[in-house]
Amino acid sequence: MARFNAVDIVLWGLRIGVVAVVVGGTIGTLLHNRYTAAQWFDFVVFGLTIGSIYAQIALGYTMVYGVLRLINFAHGDIVMTGAFAGYFVATPLDRSGFLNNHPVLGMSAILAVSIVTSTSIAVLTERIAYRPFRRVVGLAPLICAIGVSFFLEQTFRGMFGSAVKSYPSPDWQRATFQLLGFNVPRVDVLVIGLALVFMAGLYLIVQRTRMGTAMRAVAEDGEAAALMGIDVNKVVVFTFVLGGAMAGIAGVFYAFVYKQVYFFMGFTPGIKAFGAAVLGGIGNIPGAMLGGFFLGMVESVGPTLFLDGIGIPAPYQLRDLIAFTLLIMVLIFRPQGLLGERMARKRA
Amino acid sequence: MYHRLSGPMILAAAALIGMAYTASAATVGPVTDDLGVIRIAKGAPIQIGAYWVLSGADTALGLDEKRGVEIAFKDVGGKLLGHPLKLNAEDDGCNAEGGQTAATKLAANPQTAIVLGPACSSAATPGAPILWQQGVVDICTACTAPALTASTRKPEYAGFARTVFSDSEQGKADATYVHNVLKAQSVVTIHDGSPYAQQLQQVMADNFKQLGGKVLSQEAIAPTDVDMHPLLTRIASEKPDLIYFPVFTAAAAQILRQAKETPGLEHTKLMGGGSLLSADFIEAAGPSIVGFIIGYPDVSPDAMGKNYPKFVEQYKKDYGEAPISGYHANAYDGAMLAIKAIEKVAKTDKDGNLYIGRKALRDAVFDTKFEGISGPIACDPYGECSQFKPSVLEFTSADPKTFGIGKNPKKIWP
Fold it and tell me: Smallest CA–CA separation between A226 and chain B, in Å?
């Protein structure tokens, strides 16, 4: 007969409590029938939009962790640097009318500058700050990453001020179109679609190219990979290039959806994306994508679906609580994350 | 076991009691004061502490007040009773942690005579008790949360006064405007958990209900929230006539922008609070700001003190721009209140050293009356020293360079 200790009882109580809130709240909300189908559709679109951005940021965390076993806390700030670089291109393009008249060329230019900037900063960060700590065990690399995060934030604050800057909003972005009878904001579809394309591209690079194979080999066992002739330094730099590029893209998308840039803007999405990477199984690329979308959806749909039905007032102030409670619940059931097992089995 | 008190023991006890008594009323130089005395050596500066938001999205709020105080110092020649005035300004980040840190730092300096600021109630709520614990009076220059000067406030706020209005007046005026002028029948309020936003929206909601309106819900966000779409979609399902969100720059700009894109809110009016009166907010909100209204005290020249136009000219001359936010006059008056109170109680000895009793200074602040540039200044027993005249302002342009109180935003009521 199985014996339960106090911790087991608390954990089971927590699980039952969360399941009761989720199920009871969902039934209550649906029975209440307060929201139209169009509004539910909007909740899902908003969740997918922010989720796709979290997923792209989470990829940077998960790739660096996979290769270096380092939590790169500065990654959210690399996103910020990309958003700022994009801002300085987007603003004159918008003022001149070019962004409105040539949206594809304009967006390409903004993304290109953003990617180059964030990639350069990510690579410099690796070379200057992280490489000296590569062989250091303990918390020093993590503290270094936090230091880099502060350094980037305060440098951008010093250079560009602490005020919130408004991102351009060209006409074609504000338009909506009809899908299955629902109004869909064009910018949201653009962000979700392009994010999926870029993430698929990254996945193919990691899975189908020689450098991607080398990355996976270093992630599996760095020393063995080096003995097989793989240049680990080159692989690490390549990992930061990929992560930096995704951060640049995410920064521009984030700014185009939420229309603001400021020096501290990378912190919150960075922390959330890190949560998404852990949720998906840190070190696992599809896991990071899945974790990002999961977190976005829970943030967007969760407060309304789970809390409205049980009469919680102002449920949106609890969205982070809901998202991270579910994250903890998933990790209690699956400590390796949603897709983390595949890597563990391979290693075994 | 039984002990008899011997004569020496009784004497020792009496001496201890006597020391304790004298410790509670310190005498330094010619001044005796229950809360202690500051001694400022001949020629040394009178140090006036200050804490405002001087970084981040709400910088304009604090910087505007700092400039108001600097002009006040300049107007008295930069000196008081023969001692130079020195402003020790700290950045509180407009949050509780920053307020606590800044107040602790200022309180730790035994030469801090009095403190001005902060701009945010979030910072004042933990900051004022820390200062008063050391006997330092805090004259707030823009924090408007009603609880800070309520008749029910706790004793640790006894050293707190403000030269700015209370939101109990602002919320009432906003409710009156929304109900009687806009003819709105239903509202939803949003706050960000800060004492300012939470209390102001509550006062507004209570008054709106008393006027016969319906408060459909009172929502809450975090100040760092960016994605307001789900919240606004939820609000749209309630079909309110107006959304009232007296929150700060970054979050308010997101609500404003995203509300315009939310189906179901096309005809819903939006209203904010005085925390949004800055060029930075125009920059953050972009084109969606045109037509947006905020409740604010009437700061048009005819509603202000007679010296206000002269002050504005000085401000432009000193800083090369018009006032960047709306609390400069309150800050100027706060500084003048501090200066007048110090003048009243400070004593100089024959060597030229200056002495200020802390309790005497507190009493002088609460007793001083004068005609300020923001209107008459006279404190009630709970530290409310400002008079309130309501108004509603409407933004007319999305160009931050056009910011100017009375122009963009322009007064539309009364």
Answer: 44
